[in-house]
């Protein structure tokens, strides 16, 4: 019997408009299996899905950088792995100086920040229905923040490749640099992986590999998918993800997570 389900959000649980379809939510809720969302998103961006699915247990944000649950006081951290402060400041300075046209923003535990609104920020606002806090004094204000994620958005493939190559060549210690789709590059702590988040919940809940299943679509889901007993790829998943999974469900626009739970997991 599957005792716990883990699911990525963007490209997996959420449709192409970045929303959780009511039909998908109904299928997942009807199944009655405990679900943990495992996302590169910040907690504030995960709340609508958590609420719609009536989730009570721990959730995983920032690719494993923050494990939290919703309590009476709001977001209650269980474990936190922020970016090394010196590395975060070096990266912010270098990105701003070398790639001034790239949309740059960053997150602490509770908020999303940027220094100005551009096309990338507006795109992310539409996708997440969140608004960033503007730091009118510039990047200097970020020095006092405990940051969990830096996010860069560019719709120019050549600029994205140049940015990623530049950042990897910097070899800043203690960070992980990952693409999230073609237009996003995200930086979190090197210790923050989806596998790290799963390990915490496996230990806390006494789960074994055979007890668990996961849904994903992208490269940053591979550590999660290879950790569980039943890895399920979305029909829209990248080829490496499809190759790593034992099952393929419908796409994220066709309620793939809900369909996959009923088709593959409840049958077990």
Structure description:
The protein has 268 residues and is an alpha/beta fold. It has 2 domains: 4-80 and 192-265, HAD superfamily/HAD-like (Rossmann fold, 3-Layer(aba) Sandwich); 85-189, Hypothetical Protein, Haloacid Dehalogenase-like Hydrolase, Chain: A, domain 2, CATH 3.30.1240.10. 35% of the residues lie in helices and 22% in strands. Strands 8-7-6-9-11-10 form a 6-stranded mixed sheet, sandwiched between helices. Helix 2 packs parallel to helix 10 (256-265). It starts with a strand and ends with a helix.
Helix and strand sequence = EHHEHEEEHEEHEEHEEHEHEHEH
CATH class of the largest domain: Alpha Beta
Outline, from the CA principal axes?
Answer: globular
Report strand %: 15-25%
Tally of distinct domains: 2
- Average pLDDT, all residues: 94
Helix content: 25-40%
What is the terminal separation in angstroms?
Answer: 6 Å
Low-confidence stretches: none
Number of helical stretches of at least 4 residues = 10
Which architecture name of the largest domain does CATH use?
A: 3-Layer(aba) Sandwich
CATH topology of the largest domain: Rossmann fold
Strand order, sheet with most strands: 8-7-6-9-11-10
Structural class: alpha/beta
CATH superfamily of the largest domain: HAD superfamily/HAD-like
**Cα Rg:** 18 Å
Biggest sheet record: 6 strands, mixed
Number of strands: 14
